[in-house]
TrEMBL record:
Entry-linked SMART domains: S_TKc
Residues spanning the membrane: 346-365
Keywords, sorted A to Z: ATP-binding, Coiled coil, Kinase, Membrane, Nucleotide-binding, Transferase, Transmembrane, Transmembrane helix
Coiled coil: 365-394
Protein name as catalogued: Protein kinase
A Gene Ontology molecular function term of the record: kinase activity
Record carries keyword Nucleotide-binding: yes
Ranges where the Protein kinase domain occurs: 38-317
InterPro entries xref list: Kinase-like_dom_sf, LRR_dom_sf, Prot_kinase_dom, TPR-like_helical_dom_sf
Length: 694
């Protein structure tokens, strides 16, 4: 290239550099102009309710991860989402995912957090298992990850927070070895342990948020503790997270989940009974020390587990540093062997050290006077620390006692909304903070009755000092079943339910019915229970007005068709909530509302010839076919947001076509002669098939 061309090229480069420099806008001018702060969204992952996207923050210039809720969520789920964000933001630790910002966009909540360039521990272990990754191929490297997770959980526990969903999928490892514990959506705050700033996050998660089985299971099967399953009613605590950490350690050692089964129910049964293969059965090369740690952490009885995460972590560190773990109860020979391995160079020097120790023993006698002085000084120091601790305890007792009424109020609200897990935990916290709160003891006792825990119910009701019939019920059934971990037989339960009706303890009766309706049980047992409870609930009406009538109850397992038609004496059937029916026929019955169909995934429903007068409690959005003929229903507003295809309103009180015009999915409509004028019918969708009945 000639010098002239080279000079021209250099001048041209300088010109473009100057143009680029003039394009730069000062940050003082740029930042105030930014309206849409986040852009360049890319889908990363999604779960049952949340969607995770990567995005760019125009104010800071960095790339973040943004969590949002799906469009189908309700207000309770939005509230739980925001509480998760506030709780995560309050936990600032190097091994807990940091949260940067949160807010609402068109009433849709979101929050941003650190974008992790890496993989979950679950994915990493799967890659190591098939030889596709060397990042965590070495056991010591995986134990380093586990130790960091323990650091995060121990810190959360020190702040009074339980994670309750610890699993490899929620542990993220970056490409540079950073370990982060994520997804605090099921976390709970321990009222007596947390800082005051975390009290606003104190919640026991509504039943319709993050549920995995019949509205009851909160957590991940194979990693949840026995007390998290609906098969065992025990208070959750630090021991619950320790069990899950034991399951994660099991996965790190064996590359397999500890608890398996043909379905979720079988997995839960194995979890509660502690049935899992020992780690050495899967891989004989696994160190016995670590296998013993797994077994202790995963004990079915919380009392047999480690008392704290730090104790569990210390066991792993002992193994890493060449010490015996407490869980294995190592014999003296092994302890000596480990010592020799750790101190090869010192073994030879042991004799010399022993000789020196004899000399130092002689010197120690000359220092007795100095030690006495030190002992006096230490005693004074201990007294000062004891006085300080006493003042701190008195302050905490006063603070906790003042907070007790708020937890009792929350317990009442949860009980009235049939959120029994919340109610028993709130009431337990209330009496723990203020044992003199008799109303909280009474509510706690009633909750234990609903869970068939008569021993605990009797203890709570005695402390409430009330003379309610509940105390006598608890005494009588404690004689029948003293073990709170066992359940009543069907025959015993029906006597218990009948007793609640005879004593006019309607809140107990309603609680028992609701609890069983949402419990996990096989279909044969559920059908037998429903038949018996429906007869008990309607016993007076049956004996008074329809004596001799037999019950019509048919359920087809294959089609999931439920038929209770022609039972005119049946006015209430609350026990049928959450029944696995796809279609139901309740025609010619005495039901007065739709509450018994709550949580049923119905596609077809027939309530013709019933005394129902309104649709207010119809909450089955998946309905395709609805028959309300021969009822007093007049207002169809409730159907506006449904996708009905078939509707029968013949001989009902419906006299307006206003709502019918809005039902765009409707294909077939049944009415009676003269129900609407010809002019009104012509305003309906011309594709709609109208059937006129005599």
């Amino acid at each position: 290239m000639s010098k002239r061309k080279e000079l021209f090229s250099r001048k041209l480069d300088d010109f473009f550099d100057e143009v680029e420099a003039t394009d730069e806008v000062p940050l003082l001018e740029l930042i105030p102009k930014i309206k849409d702060r986040y852009c360049e969204f890319k889908h990363l992952d999604e779960g049952g309710l949340k969607v995770i996207q990567s995005c760019r923050d125009l104010r800071t210039g960095r790339f973040l991860a943004m969590a949002t809720l799906k469009n189908s969520v309700n207000d309770k789920q939005k509230e739980a989402f925001l509480k998760e964000a506030r709780l995560t933001a309050a936990l600032q630790h190097p091994n807990i995912i940091p949260l940067y910002d949160l807010g609402l966009h068109d009433q849709k909540p979101w929050f941003t957090m650190k974008l992790i360039s890496g993989a979950s521990l679950e994915k990493l272990i799967a890659q190591v298992k098939v030889g596709a990754s060397q990042q965590a191929h070495d056991l010591n490297t995986r134990l380093d990850i586990f130790i960091k997770v323990c650091d995060a959980v121990a810190y959360a526990h020190s702040r009074g927070v339980l994670h309750l969903d610890i699993k490899p999928d929620n542990i993220q490892i970056s490409e540079y070895g950073d370990v982060l514990l994520c997804d605090w959506g099921l976390a709970k705050v321990m009222a007596t342990e947390c800082d005051e700033e975390l009290l606003e996050c104190y919640s026991f998660n509504p039943k319709d948020v993050d549920l995995t089985l019949d509205g009851l299971v909160k957590g991940t099967p194979s990693y949840m503790a026995p007390e998290q399953t609906p098969l065992l009613k025990t208070k959750k605590g630090i021991h619950t997270d320790i069990f899950s950490l034991g399951c994660v350690l099991y996965k790190i050692l064996t590359f397999e989940k500890p608890f398996t089964g043909k379905d979720v129910y079988a997995i839960m049964q194995n979890t509660v009974s502690g049935h899992f293969h020992r780690a050495s059965e899967i891989n004989p090369s696994i160190p016995p020390s670590l296998e013993a740690v797994c077994i202790k952490a995963m004990a079915t009885d919380p009392e047999d587990r480690y008392k704290s995460v730090l104790n569990l972590q210390k066991e792993i560190l002992n193994y890493r540093n060449g010490f015996a773990t407490k869980a294995e109860n190592a014999p003296l020979i092994k302890i000596i062997k480990l010592w020799l391995i750790r101190h090869k160079t010192l073994s030879f020097a042991a004799i010399i050290i022993f000789c020196i120790s004899l000399f130092t023993t002689w010197l120690s006698f000359n220092n007795l006077n100095l030690e006495k002085v030190n002992a006096v000084q230490n005693a004074q120091k201990l007294r000062l620390e004891a006085d300080k601790l006493k003042l701190e305890n008195e302050f905490h007792k006063k603070f906790n006692k003042d907070a007790a009424p708020r937890f009792f109020k929350s317990a009442q609200i949860a009980f009235n909304a049939f959120n029994f897990d919340d109610a028993i935990n709130f009431s337990s916290s209330a009496v723990e903070l203020d044992p003199s709160l008799k109303q909280a003891w009474a509510l706690k006792g009633q909750m234990h009755l609903i869970y068939e825990q008569f021993g605990q119910a009797l203890d709570s009701l005695e402390k409430s000092q009330s003379n309610s019939p509940l105390h006598a019920i608890a005494q009588d059934f404690y004689r029948i079943k003293a073990n709170d971990k066992q359940a009543l037989s069907l025959e015993q339960y029906l006597k218990f339910y009948q007793r609640s009706l005879d004593e006019n303890t309607y809140k107990l009766s309603a609680g028992l019915s609701h609890q069983k309706a949402y419990a996990v049980m096989d279909i044969e047992k559920r059908i037998a229970l429903c038949k018996a409870i429906i007869i008990l609930q309607n016993k007076k009406n049956l004996e008074r007005n329809f004596k001799g009538n037999k019950m019509q109850f048919h359920y087809d397992l294959k089609s999931k068709y439920l038929d209770l038609s022609n039972n005119p004496w049946m006015e209430t059937a609350l026990i049928l909530q959450n029944f696995p029916a796809r279609s139901a026929d309740f025609s010619h019955t005495g039901i007065t509302n739709f509450i018994c169909f709550k949580k049923q995934e119905l596609h077809s429903l027939n309530v013709s010839h019933t005394p129902i007068i309104e649709l207010n409690r119809l909450d089955n959005p998946e309905l395709i076919s609805l028959n309300i003929s021969h009822t007093a229903i007049s207002n169809l507003h409730r159907l506006r947001n449904m996708s009905l295809r078939i509707l029968d309103i013949s001989h009902s009180a419906v006299r307006s076509t206003n709502i019918l015009k809005d039902l765009t999915t409707l294909e077939k409509l049944s009415i009676h002669q003269g129900q609407f004028s010809d002019a009104e019918l012509q305003k309906l969708n011309p594709k709609l098939e109208v059937i006129i009945k005599p």
